[in-house]
Amino acid sequence: MLPACSKKKEEEKEPVKEEREAVVEEEEKEPEPEPEEPIPANQNLLTGIPDLTDAAIGKRPVAVMVNNIPKAMPQYGIEKADIIFEIPVEGDQTRFMALYADYTTIPQICPIRSCRYYFPALSQGFDAFYVNWGIDDSIADYLELLQLDQYDGISGQGGFFGRDQERLNAGYALEHTGYFDGTKFASVVQAEGRRLDLTEDKRDPAFSFNGLNEQLKPEGSDCTRIDINFGQQSAALTYDAASKTYKKENSGQPQIDAKTGNQLSFTNVFVLETSISVRDSIGHKEVDWDGGDNSVGYYISNGGIQKIHWMKEANNEWSRLKFFDESGNEISINRGKTYIAMNYPNQAVFQ
């Protein structure tokens, strides 16, 4: 009788053992990977925002040189720019290089200014058309070497340059009145048969972006204001929590687009420290535009700041500008407009 009872008890226990094995097997299964976020085809490669016209998908951006000294204020056409670089020129005044991803929707832009070699050294990394009014004559051979796809107001190329008569009548100096009629740009480049398609290595986003619906704070401390001393000019950017953007000032005054009346604002702010020196008797600058492993920079967005390294491939104008954390990992940034100040070391105050 006793052996039979034992056998019966063992049989009763078997289902419990099978249930336990099923639980263990379920635990050992790896979780399914989350599906990749679908990115719209009309993603703006400079901002990460899906706002390109259909005709601009896969097409080259346009870089425009803009006068930025206080006597030339207010500018117009700059609010629409997707990326703005601000870098010192002669006398430690600054100049803008404004990039527009959608070549079909460029506005009229004024005042247009001349080229300095370090601006196209940066624009080439975006495979951009380049628009300016005059050049530093000493860099003509360099620009030819770059095979720059350029439109220059001095020669009136394309028929979309002119002088703003209202500004002339208002007493602006001549050099603060040149405009570029970007509304004509698409039809001109198409008629001329210029290369419109991005090169294969530039058809992905210019930066590594966070998710479409993510607005992340950089790893580091809080930062709601940046003051940048360029020498003869200054810039300040103050965080607006409601819009999650930084509002820009130029030498103590809000920087306004004269056509829209809006203050320039940016989702992302970069301050890149670099070596800048005077290279000739005129005061033209020598600027280290490619950075490196030991470079110092700061990424500011969403009320926070992170110390970074920045670089392009050494002596390679066609390479991308990239940003890395202090461990050497490429960082991702928030989607939106970006302001990049390239300046002397230790000339920024973060609050």
TrEMBL record:
Disordered, as annotated region: 1-45
Origin superkingdom: Bacteria
Biased composition (Acidic residues): 24-37
Regions of compositional bias (Basic and acidic residues) in chain numbering: 7-23
Pfam families named among the record's database cross-references: DUF3048, DUF3048_C
Domain DUF3048: 46-192, 226-340
InterPro entries: DUF3048_C, DUF3048_N, YerB-like_sf
Annotated protein name in UniProt: DUF3048 domain-containing protein
Species the sequence originates in: Dorea acetigenes
Source species taxonomy: Bacteria, Bacillati, Bacillota, Clostridia, Lachnospirales
